[in-house]
Design a protein that fits this description.
The protein is α+β, with helices and mostly antiparallel strands. It has 5 helices and 7 strands; from the N terminus they run βββααααββββα. A 7-stranded antiparallel beta sheet has the order 2-1-7-6-5-4-3, covered by helices on one side. The N and C termini lie far apart (40 Å).
Length: 246
């Protein structure tokens, strides 16, 4: 495996300050969409209410393997370790995730770590049961090894300092879509292809390699892209390519 390299290591990051997306190097925003809210502000008791993630499963329950093939479970554990483990989210410790990878690829992944894991911006906090997940896995083959392609959207609900001052439920919900293929090797998982985006986020934090919700940064109402926000929470279509957040 020493002659192999990880392709597309730099995960395309897309997100938003105000109902928008961020893509590394190119930015813009998406226009707001109506979400039913309490008159006094956002709903922190039911943070995903009225959002596309409202009916998704909570946390690890959202990553359902198609069958008993052990390759699926290996990738499932990698997704949990990289996107939901409190050690990665809050303490920014990637040890568990890196230990699942083949030794030869760990250093390469570490150099682009923010593309592979979710680290919450310091000072932010998720609400209880504040992660919802939806997506799918498919089995394949590459270079003589079995592969698993995982295409998932992870939605994170953040605790706002003053819920009554917010106007839209999406101000506290940030989402990451990741489409990644892992080769299953005797030495460990070998990520071979990856692409993705972030939606409804704080752009400055994203450029620094952290996830944060819209409410931590001032909105930029002069920017916007029309469109249905549901497509950014779906794995049915192609990966979005809008250049936003600038």
């Amino acid at each position: 495996m020493s002659n192999k390299v990880v392709s597309a290591l730099a995960l395309i990051v897309i997100g938003a300050v105000l109902f928008g997306l961020y893509r590394a190097g190119e930015f813009g925003e998406i226009t707001p969409h109506d979400v039913s809210l309490p008159q006094t502000g956002v709903n922190v008791e039911m943070p995903f209410a009225g959002t596309p993630a409202e009916q998704w499963q909570e946390g690890e329950k959202g990553i359902v393997v198609p069958d008993a093939n052990p390759a699926y479970e290996q990738v499932r554990q990698a997704l949990i370790a990289s996107r939901m483990d409190p050690a990665i989210l809050n303490e920014h410790r990637p040890d568990r995730y890196l230990a699942m990878l083949a030794p030869e690829v760990r250093e390469h992944v570490t150099k682009e770590l923010s593309s592979w894991i979710t680290r919450l911006k310091q000072g932010t906090k998720l609400l209880p049961n504040g992660i919802r997940v939806s997506g799918k896995m498919t089995l394949g083959e590459k270079d003589g090894y079995p592969t698993v392609t995982a295409d998932y959207v992870f939605a994170y609900a953040f605790e706002p300092p003053n819920p009554k001052k917010l106007l839209n439920q999406m101000e506290i919900v940030a989402a990451i879509r990741e489409q990644v293929t892992y080769m299953i090797t005797p030495e460990g998982l070998w990520p071979s292809d990856s692409t993705g985006f972030q939606y409804s986020i704080a752009c400055t934090a994203a450029k620094e390699g952290f996830l944060a919700p819209q409410f931590v940064e001032p909105p930029k109402p002069d920017q916007g892209l029309p469109g249905d926000e549901k497509k950014y929470f779906s794995t049915d279509g192609q990966m979005p390519t809008e250049n936003t957040c600038d």
